[in-house]
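Hello again, I could really use a second opinion on something today. Take your time with it, there's no hurry, and the full record follows here:

___
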Amino acid sequence: MGRSKYKVAPSDQRRADGRTFGSKAEKDYYLELKAGREAGIYHEVVCQPKVHLVEGYNVVWDFLVVPVVAAPFYVDVKGVETAMFKRHKKMWLAHGWLDLHIVKRSGRKFTTTEVVSP
């Protein structure tokens, strides 16, 4: 079986803790968040939280992160910024209520490239 147009890895390479993630980068970022939770940096990490914005419009970000000493925030791990993602981001600016961190992989590291504050 070939790869998708977004070059998504096979599902066995995107699996961790019994869950299949949307990309290898998302899985790897989850493992970093999990290590942070085990180290006491985060109270909670929620995968794939569905957020209702306005009537008939929901978004699903990759993670909801609840740090021990800071405000909660959403995270979306991006490889390709699709047209749908850009619409979601625009709606988040208008109707969201927590910061949304856009995270991208650069080599082996993850970097927050943008924080969308509604």
